[in-house]
Amino acid sequence: MIGGLGRSSAAPLCAERRLLCSLFLAAALFGAASAATRRHDWDISYQFTSPDCVRKLAVTINGHTPGPTIRAVQGDTIVVNVKNSLLTENVAIHWHGIRQIGTPWADGTEGVTQCPILPGDTFTYTFVVDRPGTYMYHAHYGMQRSAGLNGMIVVEVAAGAGGAGEREPFRYDREHTVLLNDWWHRSTYEQAAGLASVPMVWVGEPQSLLINGRGRFVNCSSAAATAASCNVSHPDCAPAVFAVVPGKTYRFRIASVTSLSALNFEIEGHEMTVVEADGHYVKPFVVKNLNIYSGETYSVLITADQDPNRNYWLASNVVSRKPATPTGTAILTYYGGRSSPRARPPTPPPAGPAWNDTAYRVRQSLATVAHPAHAVAPPASSERTILLLNTQNKIDGRIKWALNNVSFTLPHTPYLVAMKRGLLGAFDQRPPPETYDGLAAYDVYAVQKNPNATTSDAPYRLRFGSVVDVVLQNANMLAANNSETHPWHLHGHDFWVLGYGAGRFDPAVHPATYNLKDPIMKNTVAVHPFGWTALRFRADNPGVWAFHCHIEAHFFMGMGIVFEEGVERVGDLPPEIMGCGKTRGDH
């Protein structure tokens, strides 16, 4: 029984009131008795901001970037009314890590689950937050995420016997949220035009690293910076300050919404105990610094047990790419200490580990396993394995990224709409490749002999309820001796991270090395240079879901795919998600 209604009673209600029913059933699963509805009204507009002291147009929420932190309790319904005031630009917002059970049309992925929100239009996202943890939201239209439309989502454990805090496998007194980002002075239009050009103009390394939307461009005295109105005394770029009480334990909820950079995060002088990753509890382990990739979230615990009479750095450093961006910094200060809260610490900011120490980063990935009391055992086997070779290619002279020699493109009509309405001509019906040619002899350390590829928007169709393995294989790029880290994000699901390896994945050998005892569940995972990462998930969330590299430029250049599962089980679609492609005029 759900709220006094049996399934037979709830079914007619579903047919009549699609959205209310989806939310009603989802909330019932996650403790509807105490669930609340939390409403937000957002106006999306361009505003001049100076997050790193350089004046630049940014996409803002109610005039601010980052946007407000959404705070909720497990089982709550979130309602966000989004007005697009960008005037000449569409928008869509993805709720990263929220599985959208029963509301796939609210995932916020333009071209996959909805048409974009047109200039001047208002669109309402309504969904249930089904699991406690640390999450984020960001734009999912073009390369808009790097323009400033982002923020954090914090979902608390639903109150039960003894209170919410006792339901988690760790204790803390207070918490802070930390949003990490990278920042460019060139507009996303300029970046996108460069990526699509022949020859390609790469976006380059970011000018600054931001912590909670604040940083410092170090070359403010240069002619270019002066022309761009660089003002080091601007309040927008004053460093973020995190205050702690001596002797207390703090939970730092950390999210990376970077567009390019893999980061290493450190709180000077304070060891961090990792306790959560992407909303799942981790077997605690202690680190001096934390590697975090775009799209990932972590919670760490620190104890305020250092000298309270001085300040300490929070530091963010680029790893896995040769850094050309200075350390991003913020300040940790102690209540009651003699140091001014904004005073610079007396030491240089931590420089982090060597940027090219891949083994160091792999060790942290391997150390991230499920908490013993909260481990969810994966299915013992899968019925389908999709092996994706990730390569850099050329199509009509343009540099692209491809999976199994296919570079992904988004259709003009969103998949979810096209499939529900039987619009077969809206996307390629041919099944995409599930492995790559020459697997047994492929040399992932060499530049591929034939760099040519093709494009497609064909989705991977999964049997509803089936267990699927995906192996992401990294390889050399077009330039010799070069392979990058790629953080892959799956919408609509969490997956078990079964293993990592160096070199070429061998289907006859490496599955025997999978961790089936206590693999962590995540929604975003790194594929390390010249290596592979294996994951497993159950295709049990009706809808169409993107799976892509979370580096903004890489997805723009084709590094992604789409999964369809059980779309026939999805209820009637809201007309508000239509109006583009073959549904033009249906908005």
Descriptive keywords:
6-stranded mixed beta sheet, single chain, signal, mainly beta, Immunoglobulin-like, Cu-oxidase_fam, 587 residues, 3 domains, disordered N terminus, 32 strands
Summarize this, please?
It catalyses: 4 L-ascorbate + O2 = 4 monodehydro-L-ascorbate radical + 2 H2O. Keywords: Copper, Disulfide bond, Metal-binding, Oxidoreductase, Repeat, Secreted, Signal. The chain has 587 residues and is mainly beta.
What does this structure look like?
This protein has 587 residues and is mainly beta. It has seven helices and 32 strands. The longest helix has 12 residues, at 18-29. The chain is globular.
* Widest sheet, order of strands: 10-9-12-17-14-15
What is the total tally of β strands? Answer: 32
The number of distinct helices, counting runs of at least 4 residues, comes to 7
CATH homologous superfamily of the largest domain? Cupredoxins -  blue copper proteins
Query: Considering DSSP H and I runs of 4 or more, what fraction of the residues is helical?
Result: under 10%
Q: Determine the strand fraction and express it as a percent band.
A: 25-35%
Mean pLDDT, rounded to whole units?
A: 92
Task: Please give the oligomerization state of what you see.
Answer: single chain
Spans of at least 5 consecutive residues with low confidence: 1-28, 161-166
Largest sheet: 6 strands, mixed
What is the second-level CATH architecture of the largest domain?
Sandwich
Query: What's the N-to-C terminus distance?
Result: 37 Å
Report the CATH C-level class of the largest domain: Mainly Beta
What's the CATH topology label of the largest domain? Immunoglobulin-like
- Indicate the radius of gyration in whole angstroms: 23 Å
Instruction: Look at the helices and sheets and give the structural class.
Output: mainly beta
Number of domains as seen in the coordinates:
3
Shape: globular
